[in-house]
């Protein structure tokens, strides 16, 4: 049995070799902490548990990650398996390390229970989305690699289920992150348990042919080496047999025996420069016969996962075809360790802000236009997942919904019958309210009842997905015709009054016929019903028939005089009162149902101190108390036009507001601002800027927020961007 000190030394060697910048004192501190926490636990083979975190840390060091990631690896099972807490880890090792450990813990808790292809893709995306920091995934992959290496100690059932999971989740993730070496090892180890016979058949064949194979590889290697040194190219040549799973897959997809397989051998020539790569290619094609149609130039067109090399297949005098991959050392590093290779690069440039974190992804985005690459980047850059949330049904099916979705969206995503008979919802086994926002990895359960009353109209404001909204509207359309007619009539007539049209015009039969034709309804009730369930808005309906109405209006007084509009509108039906207030989000003292407008000069949002100004003809205009335009409130001559207003406390509607950003006109500034807004789920409606002298710029941005806290958060985030000197409210 291997000892703890052997594993410890082996980790230290890996750190010295691949991650020499790592802070060893911290590593030791984390090691002792974890060893103590796990001291009473054993692995399945009977060895001390700490060997596992040590081995994971060693893999993390090998792929060249940083101090925090190695600490995260050492501590990765502490929260899940010991009495250690998140706060304790923050206290001892800092926020970043604690976040990494917690991230890995969350992934550990995700249940894998299906093999459906679409589900797999969603699960992989969920992993990405849940790991706000890409290092979480890298540690999790290292964790899985070590567990896979030691699978022999598990029960046969566990061996199979873990291997399936590895093959379907972790190997594709490693591939997507460009980590070939780890991907191959995961695949080979898993195949052993998924198809033991197939695996052994290949192993037996390879063992039987090992001598010949080695002889062949040496011959080819010598030929290439001799040629390259004769022309003065400095390069390293390696021969290998392709990994077991790739042979297996070829046998399966081509329906062939291993004997008949075309290319079992691959050679790798690693040189110093790109020019050398192409020179070597010429020499290879000179030395051997080219197999047509197999040449690929991944240097000029890298693969989506950043892989670069020249590939060619040739055949020598031995009559055995083989593949040659030609690349530089830098490309080699990327091919083996993918995204982590870039991490290493980041270490060297000594950067600690978030700013450069995704720099290379952006570079890649700029360089590559094909959609596959964009998909890849999309799946990599975890905050780009902010437009989607992935949750589970109680049976483990993954459902993907728009970010911000609620149990209502979930219910309708399952089936409209589930949504329509919903009487309650549970998240992770706890009863929740309908307006809770779902989080990645939540297990959502919908409680239904045959006697459910059906959806409520509030749901239309709560749900996020169009799917749910449409299904709810459908239900109202079908089930609530009478109610719809009443509601539709009320809002249609209110809209008429807003347009200074007396609803009594509808009593004119001739006009009514014209109107119905124009809006394509058979009866007035049909139109009211459509407005009532939300299929048509009252504003649209009135706009469409405005001409007819005005025309008729001339002939049919009594039209309400314009002066009465818009204050103290005729009381709308009671049902409308609430929504009216909700829409503006403002309560005007002493005036019910008045028209309210948020001023464009200072764009107030909930939480700002506000005051209202009674305009001539446009209702009450709302200003921030510190808006220059509100100064006249102190002027006695104007005082009677200023009214007290307050924010309705339960508004969920977003408010448009503006900020001005003083900043340097450095590269990437716009992208950084856009990235912040995306990551905060905020809708930007306007973004413009102008360059000033001396490398300065002013960027103005209009966007929607729910309240002052959200706005302040945006301001703080923007202020922390490099090059930003000031962030002001308002607009130019
Ligand atoms: Mn583990």
Features:
Hypothetical protein af1432; Ubiquitin-like (UB roll); binds manganese (II) ion; 732 residues; four-stranded mixed beta sheet; elongated
Can you give a write-up of this model?
- By secondary structure, the chain is an alpha+beta fold.
- Helices cover 50% and strands 15% of the residues.
- The chain is built from 30 helices and 21 strands.
- Strands 1, 2, 3, 4, 5 and 6 form a 6-stranded mixed beta sheet that branches.
- A hairpin with a 5-residue loop joins strand 5 and strand 6.
- Helix 3 packs antiparallel against helix 4 and helix 10 runs antiparallel to helix 11.
- The N and C termini lie far apart (72 Å).
- The site of manganese (II) ion has 4 residues, from loops.
Structure in a nutshell:
Helices cover 50% and strands 15% of the residues. The strands form six sheets. Strands 1, 2, 3, 4, 5 and 6 form a six-stranded mixed β-sheet that branches. Manganese (II) ion (MN) binds at residues 52, 76-77, 143.
Question: Would you spell out the secondary-structure blueprint of this structure?
Answer:
Layout: H1 4-18, H2 24-37, H3 51-62, H4 67-74, H5 78-81, H6 86-93, H7 95-109, H8 117-130, H9 134-149, H10 156-176, H11 180-194, H12 196-208, H13 210-230, E1 235-241, H14 244-254, E2 265-271, H15 274-287, E3 289-290, E4 296-297, E5 310-315, E6 321-328, H16 329-337, H17 339-349, H18 359-367, H19 371-380, E7 388-392, E8 398-402, H20 407-414, H21 416-420, E9 422-427, E10 430-432, E11 444-448, H22 458-462, H23 466-479, H24 481-498, H25 509-519, H26 524-533, H27 538-555, H28 574-584, E12 586-588, E13 596-598, E14 610-614, E15 620-624, E16 642-643, E17 645-647, E18 655-664, H29 669-679, E19 684-691, E20 696-705, H30 708-719, E21 724-729
Parallel strand pairs: 2-6, 13-15
Antiparallel strand pairs: 1-2, 3-5, 4-5, 5-6, 7-8, 9-10, 9-11, 12-17, 14-15, 14-16, 18-20, 18-21, 19-20
Helix pairs in contact: 1-3, 2-4, 3-4, 3-9, 4-7, 4-9, 6-7, 7-9, 8-10, 9-10, 9-11, 10-11, 11-12, 12-14, 13-15, 16-17, 20-23, 23-26, 24-26, 24-27, 25-27
């Amino acid at each position: 049995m291997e000892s703890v000190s052997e594993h410890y030394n082996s980790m230290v060697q890996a750190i010295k070799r691949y991650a020499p910048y790592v802070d060893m004192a911290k590593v030791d501190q984390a090691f002792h902490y974890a060893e103590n926490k796990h001291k009473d636990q054993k692995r399945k083979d009977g060895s001390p548990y700490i060997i596992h975190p040590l081995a994971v840390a060693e893999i993390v060091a090998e792929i060249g990650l940083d101090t925090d990631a190695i600490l995260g690896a050492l501590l990765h099972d502490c929260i899940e398996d010991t009495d250690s807490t998140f706060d304790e880890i923050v206290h001892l090792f800092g926020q970043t390390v604690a976040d990494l450990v917690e991230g890995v813990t969350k992934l550990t808790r995700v249940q894998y229970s299906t093999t459906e292809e679409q589900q797999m893709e969603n699960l992989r995306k969920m992993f990405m989305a849940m790991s706000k920091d890409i290092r979480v995934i890298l540690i999790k992959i290292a964790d899985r690699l070590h567990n896979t290496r030691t699978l022999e100690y598990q029960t046969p059932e566990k061996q199979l289920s873990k291997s399936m999971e590895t093959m379907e989740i972790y190997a594709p993730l490693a591939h997507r992150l460009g980590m070939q070496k780890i991907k191959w090892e995961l695949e080979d180890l898993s195949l052993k348990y998924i198809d033991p016979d197939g695996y052994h058949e290949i192993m037996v064949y390879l063992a039987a042919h090992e001598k010949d194979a080695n002889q062949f590889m040496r011959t080819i290697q010598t030929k290439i080496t001799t040629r390259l040194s004769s022309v003065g190219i400095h390069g390293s040549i390696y021969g290998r047999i392709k990994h077991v799973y790739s042979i297996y897959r070829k046998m399966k997809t081509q329906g062939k025996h291993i004997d008949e397989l075309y290319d079992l051998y691959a050679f790798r020539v690693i040189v110093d420069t790109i020019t050398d790569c192409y020179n070597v290619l010429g020499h290879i094609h000179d030395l051997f016969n080219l197999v047509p149609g197999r040449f690929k130039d991944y240097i000029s067109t890298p693969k989506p996962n950043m892989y670069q090399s020249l590939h060619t297949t040739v055949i020598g005098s031995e009559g055995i075809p083989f593949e040659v991959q030609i690349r530089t050392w830098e490309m080699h590093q990327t091919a083996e360790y993918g995204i982590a290779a870039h991490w290493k690069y980041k270490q060297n440039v000594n950067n600690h802000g978030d700013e450069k974190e995704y720099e290379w992804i952006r570079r890649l985005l700029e360089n590559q236009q094909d959609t596959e690459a964009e998909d890849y980047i999309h799946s990599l850059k975890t905050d780009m997942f902010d437009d989607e949330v992935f949750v589970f049904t109680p049976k483990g099916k993954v459902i993907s919904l728009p970010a911000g979705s609620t149990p209502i969206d979930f219910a309708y995503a399952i089936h409209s019958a589930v949504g329509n008979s919903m009487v309650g919802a549970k998240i992770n086994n706890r009863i929740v309210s309908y307006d809770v926002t779902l989080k990645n990895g939540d297990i959502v359960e919908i409680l239904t009842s045959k006697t459910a009353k059906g959806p409520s109209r509030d749901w239309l404001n709560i749900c996020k997905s169009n799917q749910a909204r449409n299904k709810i509207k459908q239900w109202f359309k079908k089930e609530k015709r009478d109610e719809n007619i009443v509601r539709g009539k009320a809002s249609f007539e209110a809209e008429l009054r807003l347009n200074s049209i007396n609803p009594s015009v509808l009593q004119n039969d001739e006009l009514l016929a014209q109107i119905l034709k124009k809006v394509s309804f058979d009866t007035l009730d049909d139109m009211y019903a459509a407005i009532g369930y939300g299929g048509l808005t009252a504003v649209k309906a009135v706009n469409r028939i405005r001409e007819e109405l005005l025309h008729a209006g001339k002939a049919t007084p009594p039209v309400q005089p314009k002066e009465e509009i818009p204050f103290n509108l005729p009381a709308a039906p009671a049902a409308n009162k609430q929504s009216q207030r909700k829409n503006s989000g403002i309560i005007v003292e002493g005036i019910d149902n008045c028209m309210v407008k948020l001023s464009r000069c200072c764009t107030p949002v909930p939480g700002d101190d506000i005051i209202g100004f009674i305009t001539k003809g446009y209702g009450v205009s709302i200003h921030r108390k510190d808006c220059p335009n509100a100064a006249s409130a102190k002027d006695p001559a104007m005082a009677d036009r200023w009214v007290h207003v307050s924010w309705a406390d339960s508004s969920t509607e977003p408010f448009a507001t503006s900020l001005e950003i003083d900043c340097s006109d450095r590269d990437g500034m716009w992208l950084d601002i856009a990235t912040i807004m995306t990551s905060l789920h905020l809708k930007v409606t306007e973004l413009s800027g102008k360059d000033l002298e001396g490398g300065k710029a002013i960027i103005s941005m209009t966007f929607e927020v729910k309240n002052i806290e959200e706005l302040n958060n945006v301001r703080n985030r923007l202020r922390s961007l490099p090059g930003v000197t000031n962030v002001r409210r308002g607009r130019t």
